[in-house]
Design goal:
This protein is 36% helix and 22% strand. By secondary structure, it is of the alpha/beta class. It has one domain: Rossmann fold (3-Layer(aba) Sandwich). A five-stranded parallel beta sheet has the order 6-7-8-3-9, sandwiched between helices. It has a four-stranded antiparallel beta sheet with strand order 2-1-4-5, covered by helices on one side. Strand 7, helix 7 and strand 8 form a beta-alpha-beta unit. Helix 4 packs across helix 5 and helix 6 packs parallel to helix 7. The radius of gyration is 17 Å and the shape is globular. 37% of the residues are buried. The site of adenosine-5'-triphosphate (ATP) has 11 residues, from helix 2. The site of adenosine-5'-triphosphate has 11 residues, from helix 2. It comes from Rheinheimera salexigens.
Length: 230
């Protein structure tokens, strides 16, 4: 076992989850990710990608098995404890972007830092730098998020996730509304920021063309067989 994998960022053992009795079930015999690894997860619609991310981010709880994040046993924590862990360590960008429509673009970017208890002045500087890198015009920073296009909202959502420098970044189809130029700068910024901060990334998409940005990839069909990322 390598040094990195002795203390993995993410480690799942014999995890099982179902939304209800006799329904579709997600089964993961083993999944391990080293700190700082960037993993691309792909799979067809309904294969369980969002369900996996909801478990990893602590939004839902495993039915059985073990789920460790940064050495913390998520499977033993209450919903409130998982919320706290998510606020402090996990950046999330989901398909439903969940920007607060009446708050300004900048205030939306500061939300995750606020919940993580991080310094506001530093968070503002970092948010401004990231917004510039993702080409969100300064004239929009103090406008309400509701006036943004979906593509602009996707870029603001990734800035919000990155501002508090999370140790784990979880992204679910975050580029679906971006044109190819914006998608490229989005991917490059996200992965460069992650690398600079030793952040582990799990990025889910059904778009295999995005796999080129990643060192490791995983097919949802392999997951049930306990196959590791490659
Ligand atoms: N809240 C829910 N209650 C019951 N079943 C659900 C719920 N959410 C998802 N499912 C079911 O769980 C399975 C996996 O769904 P999930 O959303 O994780 O797939 P996905 O790979 O993310 O799909 P997509 O690419 O279409 O977003 C599907 O069979 C789906 O119908």
């Amino acid at each position: 076992m390598t040094e990195q994998l002795k203390n993995p960022a993410i480690n799942l053992k014999n995890v099982q989850f179902a939304y209800s009795k006799n329904s579709w079930q997600l089964q993961i015999p083993q999944l391990t990710l080293a700190t700082g690894q960037h993993l691309f997860v792909y799979g067809s619609s309904g294969s369980g990608k969002t369900t996996l991310l909801n478990l990893l981010s602590g939004i839902t709880q495993v039915d059985s098995g073990e789920l460790w994040l940064n050495g913390q046993a998520m499977h033993t924590l209450s919903a409130k404890q998982r919320d706290l862990l998510r606020a402090q360590h996990i950046g999330v960008v989901f398909q439903q972007l969940n920007l607060i429509s009446y708050l300004s673009v900048l205030d939306n970017c500061l939300l995750s830092s606020y919940f993580a208890g991080k310094d506001r002045k530093q968070a503002i500087l970092r948010a401004q730098t990231l917004l510039k890198h993702l080409d969100i015009a300064e004239s929009l920073w103090h406008k309400p998020a509701r006036i943004l296009s979906v593509g602009q909202q996707q870029r603001v959502a990734i800035v919000r996730a990155l501002v508090p420098k999370p140790t784990i970044l979880i992204a679910d189809e975050p580029t679906s509304a971006l044109d190819s130029d914006n998608r490229d700068s989005f991917m490059q910024l996200m992965l460069a920021e992650a690398s600079a901060n030793q952040c582990t990334v799990i990025f889910v998409s059904h778009d295999r063309s995005l796999q080129q940005y990643f060192q490791a990839y995983l097919d949802m069909r392999q997951l049930a067989q306990g196959v590791q990322a490659c």
